[in-house]
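Section handout, structural biology tutorial.
Before the tutorial, make sure you can parse a SMILES string by hand: atoms, branches in parentheses, ring closures as digits. In the record below the ligand is zinc ion, and the chain has 99 residues. In the tutorial you will relate the predicted C-alpha cells back to the input. Do not try to memorize them.
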Amino acid sequence: MNVGNVGSGGTGVCYGHVGPTPYNTTLITGADTVNAEGLPIANLTAIGICSCGHISMVTTNSTDVIAEGTGVHRVGDSGQSSGTGAYTLISGTTTVNAD
Ligand SMILES: [Zn+2]
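Predicted structure of the complex:
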C-alpha cells in the first residue's frame, strides 16, 4: 500500500465528545530523516491534528519497512484519537509503497 507522509489524511469517529463525532485527521509529524515525495514519511510515532479538536497517533504500521526504528504507516492502517476512536488512513503518497 501507499505510505503516508506529512499531510496525509485519515478519517474516523471520535468518542471524546457528547455523542460520536466523525473526524478527519491530517498527519503533521513523521520521520524527519526519511522523506517520501519530499515530506517526512509517517511512522509509528506520527501525530495528526483532528478536525474534532483532538490529536491522533499512529497505532498500526508495516512490520517490514522501518523508518527511524518504527514501521511506516500505510493507507489502510489505523491510528487513534486522543479522545478515543480509531481512524483509517485514506490518503498517502502516490508513488511510494510498502508491503
Ligand atoms: Zn475528538
